Structures are given as C-alpha cells and as structure tokens.
Amino acid sequence: MGRIKSELDVQGRKCWTLFDSGARYSYILRNATAGLDVQHLPVPRATALGGRSHQIKDVCLVFARVDGHDVEFQANVVDEVGHDEEGRSIEIVFGAVAMQLWSIKLDLRNERLDLSHITSDFVEF
C-alpha cells in the first residue's frame, strides 16, 4: 500500500489530496464540497478513517483535474480526515477504487503519480 500527496483541481479550487491505495473508497471534507453535487444517503453507514470512526450521511460527485486530466469520482463526505507529515490538512482521500477506474498508479520510488495509463475511454463487454 502506498500514499502520494498532490493538489487536485476541483472546479478551480486546489484541494490537498492524499492518493491512498490502502483506502478502498474516496473521501472529501464537508467544507470542500461547496458547489458540488452532494446527496444525502437514505441510510447512514459507518467507516473507519484516520484512526477514528465516521458516520457517512452524504456522498459527493467530484469533478476534478489531476495533472491536466479530467476525472470524476464519488467521495464519502466527512468532517475531518487529518493532517499530513507537514501539518497540512488533507481535504480529499483519493481511494483505490477511483485509482483503478482511471488507471492511476502510484510511483512510490519517485514519490509521484504515474498517469502514463490514465484513461478517458472505457470499453465495456
């Protein structure tokens, strides 16, 4: 499992993002959802994130740009994720499901995202 941090452009706003292959799902801070499509869940669910339990009551459809590539993904809305090693607040956790969907890989050796296989075309059988 690996983690890379980068800024994600969400509708013109820079969000500090943790690309985390150890997190199955994606998460976004409630205060980062302004102007985004947030939907209330009919039945809340629980998740463990950042060493504590969270009640997920809303999900958000996020349209973003990562290094010039357009992506969209669903994120669970949370009030807090935590801070990185430099004390910077993590606003989005980009999880494994979203990375797999877009073929985003983590280049841990060079501490950067590997976007060499990112896709914008999907083939369904």
Strand and helix layout:
Blueprint: E1 3-10, E2 13-20, E3 26-29, E4 37-49, E5 52-66, E6 69-78, E7 92-94, H1 96-102, E8 105-107, E9 112-114
Parallel strand pairs: 2-7, 3-6
Antiparallel strand pairs: 1-2, 3-7, 4-5, 5-6, 8-9
**CATH fold label:** Cathepsin D, subunit A, domain 1
Q: How many angstroms does the end-to-end distance come to?
A: 30 Å
> Which residues form runs of ≥5 with pLDDT under 50?
none
Count of DSSP E strands?
9
Question: Please, could you describe this protein's structure?
Answer:
With 125 residues, the protein is mainly beta. The chain has one domain: Cathepsin D, subunit A, domain 1 (Beta Barrel), CATH 2.40.70. The chain has one helix and nine strands; from the N terminus they run βββββββαββ. It has one helix at 96-102; strands at 3-10, 13-20, 26-29, 37-49, 52-66, 69-78, 92-94, 105-107, 112-114. The strands form two sheets. A seven-stranded mixed sheet has the order 1-2-7-3-6-5-4. Strands 8-9 form a two-stranded antiparallel ribbon. It is globular and about 35 Å long.
List keywords for this structure.
125 residues; mainly beta; Cathepsin D, subunit A, domain 1; 7-stranded mixed sheet; two-stranded antiparallel ribbon; 1 helix; 9 strands; 6% helix; globular
